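Dear Dr. H.,

I hope your travels went smoothly. While you were away I took the liberty of generating a structure for the chain from your last submission, since the lab meeting agenda had it listed for discussion. I wanted you to have the full record in hand beforehand rather than looking at slides cold. The sequence, exactly as received, is reproduced here:
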Amino acid sequence: MAVTVFPLLILAGGAAALFFPEPFTDAGLSAYVNPGLMLIMFGMGLTLTLPDFALVIRQPLPVLLGVVAQYMIMPLLGVAVAWALQLSPELAVGVILVGCAPGGTASNVVTYLARETWPFRWP
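The corresponding predicted structure, in token form, is as follows:
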């Protein structure tokens, strides 16, 4: 159920911010973004168990592939996109930086929810 509702909540939040931007500006909810992200990440961390860490030690390849993809492949794809689209230096830097940035809290939540429904388990 959470996997189905999460995208709907994201779309509803985006629509609310688009049509009613005042609560989402500096005077509104923006002061609560960092504490909210901290709370979400803390909650996600509480779901980890010792067997999760043992699995990473027993099978480090998926984690290593993720690190290589995030910090080598993604920035290089950003460079390739900037070059292919012949972006201005300012836009190119932005695209490359987005490629360098980790996925963030939303991707962690989606990954957590997908663990509950995804049929494939790493051996």
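Two observations you may find useful: The mean pLDDT is 79. The longest helix spans residues 61-84.

With kind regards,
E. W.
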